[in-house]
Here is the input.
Amino acid sequence: MTAARNEPLVALRRLLPAPGELTADALVAELRPWESAPAQRPLRPHVAVNMVHTSDGRAAVHGRTGPISSLADRQLFHALRTRVDAVMVGAGTLRVERYGRMVPDAARRAQRRAAGLAPDPLAIVVSGSLDLPADLPLLQDPSSRVVIVTSSARSLAGVRAQVEYLRAEEALDLPGALAQLRSDHGVRAILCEGGPHLNASLLAHGLLDELFLTTVPVLAGATGALSIMDGAALEAPLGLSLCWMLEHEGELFARYAIGAPGERRVGAPT
Here is the structure.
């Protein structure tokens, strides 16, 4: 983007690895996560999670990210979507944030084509009960391809998007779903945008490779209920390796590689 109309492009101040100033588009231009997937784990895609939180660790205020997001964060949010095969989101976040087409901006779709990707990423929705209203903008967009990971046997009526289902017989099987997305849909790289419970499930199954984290210089207190990985069941803390750090008007934008339990990884993924 190429920002939206009348929206100025924000210059981020890079602190690490080398000082400089660049836009969100220039920052993510180096990312080719689809090349990392075969070498790292042939049976599933490369998975990164992108989240914003307050300085006291809250991922939303009154259930929404809007109050803690900013122009700089939104531009990085949309730029990251140009570098993956698919965007994953949980049903709760989809309902609250009212997701529409994943890449509505034509210039960003052109960026995806230039990188050898489809103009629009596949939308992956995780919903165990399939409690999704058909009037959600994403489900009413004919240009959107949507795969719903669910344990429900029913299907949604009245949707206009191109919808397919990955069904589990009982509880959701995230490792199996990711393997099937890789083998049957050619998904090599996924950007997960939450919410916190989906992030925690992916983390607990060892399915996350990277974390993009925006830290906003505000305190939410009791108005923000969840952390970015709420309820993750880990036997030991996971080490993170810092790949980059940028700043804009007090906000910090970090990229981490996720390591094995108790391990501090050295070096950034390529």
